[in-house]
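Q: Sequence in, structure out?
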Amino acid sequence: MRLKPSVVLRFYGLCGILIQVAATKSKAKGSQGQFPLTQNVTVIEGETATLTCRVDQNDNTSLQWSNPAQQTLYFDDKKALRDNRIELLRASWHELTIRVTDVSLSDEGQYTCSLFTMPVKTSKAFLTVLGVPETPQITGFISPVMEGDRMELTCKTSGSKPAADIRWFKNDKEVKDVKYLKEEDANRKTYTVSSTMNFKADRSDDGAVVSCRVDHESLNSTPQIAMQVLEIHYVPSVKIIPSTIWPEEGQSITLICESKGKPLPDPVLWTKDGGDLPDPERMVVTGRELNINVLNKTDNGTYRCEAANSIGLNSAEYVLIIHDVSNILLPTTVIPSLTTATVTTTVALTSTVPSAAAINTRDPNALAGQTGPDHAVIGGIVAVVVFVTLCSIILLGRYLARHKGTYLTNEAKGAEDAPDADTAIINAEGSQVNAEEKKEYFI
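A: Exactly. Output:
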């Protein structure tokens, strides 16, 4: 009867073991210091594992590798287990190295290297197989999302061993407030992990990149990433920007309607005081800009810009007040004198009389703290006139007082020898020519 090759191989291996044991009995005493050396091995599922057993001192003693089920894989250079994934790399008295290709999770376990001395010495090597996590998937995303709605995104991956780690990022900034869940798969060897991020949609999130990152030791520092670009729809925001803050008659002004929204707002609508633009020839709308040429007082009013999209409508207003052309005031010159005062004042006054509405309406676009110069000029003129009048009155009073004093003195001198007042005056005037007079001064 012809035996099967596998039976012959096992018989041959068993005989070799018995022969080897018998041959090494006489050397047992000298081989007490011989020990096989192995190392634990970690490999990623689907890759190749290499198991090596070495002996520093060996007196021609056989080496053997066994799997976790205690099945002999190789006895020296002889293969004992029929498995095409297991190959012999090196076989000598000092080393036995085998290779296992396409490693699966079932290959994980403790492998044994045996040195057939008396007694037999062994060394253990644990083979760890890492389960690679599947590419993550993000679920729960609905596009587009309305501003203010809540979003709940879930990232999930399966097949990791040990359990993978999941992290969330929004525009490269990590999001910490998330939920993490780990579940054991049906094979009871790998895990399915998931993470959930919950947040309120805001217009600032429009265009943001949300990414789910899976980290695992089997990925060789290259994480798996799933990404999702957010699309947030929101009502337009509107703002009017004038080209000048002090519009004057005869000039031009451009009002820019700045509107932002998602979807992009339709062409804006310009109105004045609740109605259409009254002068289309001077008031030209170009895109989002309103250009008003050759300004005049009839252009005063409230201008409104409206922008709308499929989400809603928003608007902004601007109160336009046209100012008179700037006036140039010449300086005031005052020339003082003891007897007279000359005041020269040049004031430029406009002939335009403001209406009651213009007087009561305060320009919201005017610069803070700015007032007209007319009050200051008029106050200065009044002060100068009062000062000159007072000086003139003082000088006139002094002159009249001095004249009256001289008349009374002359009258007293002529009354000494005169029978009446007229004679006394004549005598006093005649004596002034030849006689020395006593002079009196009134100060």
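The longest strand covers residues 150-160.
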